[in-house]
Amino acid sequence: MTPKLLDPVLLQTDFPDLRLHASGKVRDVYQLDDERLLFVATDRISAFDYVLATGIPHKGRVLSQISLFWFDFLSDIVPNHLITADVERYPQALQKYADQLRGRSMLVRRAQMFPVECVVRGYISGSAWKEYKATGKVCGIALPAGLRESEAFPEPIFTPSTKASSGHDENISFASMCEIVGTETASTLRDLTLRVYKKAADYARQRGIIIADTKFEFGRTALGITLADEVLTPDSSRFWPADKYAPGRSQESYDKQYVRDYLEEIHWNKQPPAPALPSEVALRTSEKYLDAYLQVTGHKLDV
Question: Does 236 fall in a domain?
Fold first, then answer.
């Protein structure tokens, strides 16, 4: 499934009569009223904390559709914030934007979000691998000696982080998380995170994907503790092809590591302005996102 160079890319939303609630590296969130928000996933891509000048065709649609799949799949464990992603069921005021919203948006319950990222790691990679090599620990958790890069942990580990409005999130200990949200809530979020990860990782492995790590966001709604934002996408997770997995080295992935590798190759100094991507890099990245959707759901995204 190869995207075309001329595929449309949505870098910026423009709904002048809607109230912008928040604008992130990828998503723009609009407030409809006190109870509902409109999430719109753009095709923006970020790396090393900066949004790049080039968008990735279909990326926002892939993120939205994969999240919708997981919201449904995990609904027996935890409620989620989704009201509907059917544009025809959106309020009348949004119907004039239907073409822009279809496939890349969702109407959600507004939640009181917890100010932490709930990160779970099943395999040792990335920053966790660097920390382990230096200290024998990951986020303060002592681990067995002799682990190899990309090897599975004996059991998945919970490594929460702060939620930064800009720049890097910072890893924190579970004790610090308890100080932020309270011990009972922290314990509930940790247990939910591990349960959700294990169910999703078992399913994904059957579909040929290893979910090496991922992060979740939770909030409170009338439904109680609620899973929110994006879920188990190539942006929030490391997806590895199971048939190419071999511990002892870094892994090929479905996520944006391909873009990070390109930026390292050109020796970008990781300072603004962020560079543009060559068309072949953007399109290859788009292929990876589309492949991830196919692997997870068993269906091709209609492009």
Answer: yes
Q: pLDDT tens for residues 200-250?
A: 999 999 999 999 999 999 999 999 999 999 999 999 999 999 999 999 999
- For residues 10 and 60, the answer to whether their CB atoms sit within 8 Å is yes
- CA end-to-end span of the chain: 9
Q: Which residue is associated with the tokens 């279809």?
A: 102
Nearest CA to 207 out of 82, 102, 292, 91 is that of 292
Tokens encoding 12: 């910026």
Q: Is the bond preceding residue 273 a cis peptide, omega within 30 degrees?
A: yes
pLDDT digits (tens, 9 = 90+) for 89-108: 999 999 999 999 999 999 99
What would the two tokens of residue 237 be? 């997770």
Query: Which residues fall within 8 angstroms of residue 184, CB to CB, at 6 or more apart?
Result: none
Give a yes or no: residue 282 inside a domain.
Answer: yes
CA distance 192 to 284: 35
Residues in the chain: 303
Which structure tokens are listed for 62? 């892939």
Q: What tokens does 116 get?
A: 């932490």
Q: Which range marks the domain in which residue 155 is found? A: 113-244
Which residues lie closer than 8 Å to 12 by C-beta, 6 or more apart?
Answer: 28, 42
Residue pointed to by tokens 């979910």: 211
